[in-house]
Amino acid sequence: MEQDTHDHYDHEGSKLGMWLFIFTELLFFGGLFIVYGVSRYKNGIAFSMSAEELDVTIGTVNTIILLISSATIAMSISSIQMKKAKLTIALLSVTLILGIIFLINKYFEWGAKIDHGLYPGSDVLQQFGNGETLFFGLYYFMTGLHALHIIIGMIFIAVMIVKVRNGKIHADRFVQLENAGLYWHLVDIIWIFLFPLFYLIA
Amino acid sequence: MENSEEHKIVSFKTYLIILVSLICFTLLSVFVTKIDLGNISIIVALSIAAIKSLLVFSVFMHLYYDKKMYSIMVAGVILLMTLVLIITFLDYGF
Fold first, then answer.
1. Tens-digit pLDDT profile for residues A54-91
2. Domain that holds residue B47
3. Which of A94, A128, A187, B3 has the CA that lies 20 to 30 A from A46?
4. Closest CA to A76 of A98, A93, A59, A60
């Protein structure tokens, strides 16, 4: 009995818990999207003008990178079910590398904006109106918060790689990997909405 | 369906088809917003984003294969967010 309670495993319960957490994340970002919506409604022209400063190409590339990484982590769950641990680790590593590439792109993107003096509280932004300040404030906050989620997701995936290698995650016990996947897909879905709202509205 | 321990293994092919369609939708949304359609292009871009998120939710996040309960809960959360959005905009003369 003691062994049983120590080794308690509830696939459905774990997954449900992860989904509940994902709902709080959705509502969290949902609130920010509402702030964005109202700000844009009140400062339509300033938002369109500011969005032209953003690089659509880098945004598109990053979108595709995240989509591919979502597919690879989804495939890693299939491969652990097929008892292919090595393939699982390879797919998770690809996901991790794509996450790093996403962040490197983000670094250069933010760097270029900051070089142009476009950052919260900068002299350049203060010469513009409230609309521009709001746009770039939301841009840095929302993409920054998203990048933070990418970093958390990458740590989550790195732990999964170690656990698959140690045999802690296998074909009969992979809910943690599934939850890591759910988290990564959530990050993907948030980006799917951030991309058109910030990059494509010029 | 009876045995909850059995988990459906989704084929790599399914994921790759979904991935290709997601990338096509992304390029489509970039292309559509390049043509100046005014406010319509925003609606189109957001509709495409909605379709993309539906694909991620249903296939990548397994809602299509999982118990109905999960889909109902996700739909509930999205409904809640939509209601809050609408109610907020009521204050801004919409």
1. 999 999 999 999 999 999 999 999 999 999 999 999 99
2. 9-61
3. A187
4. A93
User: What ipTM does this complex have?
Assistant: 0.90
| Residues B54 and B13 placed together within one structural domain of the fold | yes
Instruction: Tell me: do B71 and B51 sit in the same domain.
Output: no
- Minimum Cα–Cα distance from B80: chain A residue: A27
Question: In DSSP terms, which residues pair with A170 in a beta bridge?
Answer: A173
Q: Which residue of B has its CA nearest to A36?
A: B85
Tokens representing residue B28 in the block: 């489509």
Measured from the Cβ of residue B3, the count of other Cβ atoms closer than 10 Å reads 6
B86 touches A at CB < 8 Å: no
Q: Is residue B3, in this structure, part of any structural domain at all?
A: no
Do residue B30 and residue B49 come from a single domain?
A: yes
Q: Is residue A7 part of a domain?
A: no
| Residue in A39, A102, A80, A83 with CA at minimum distance from that of residue A176 | A80
Say yes or no for a CB contact (<8 Å) between B42 and A12: no
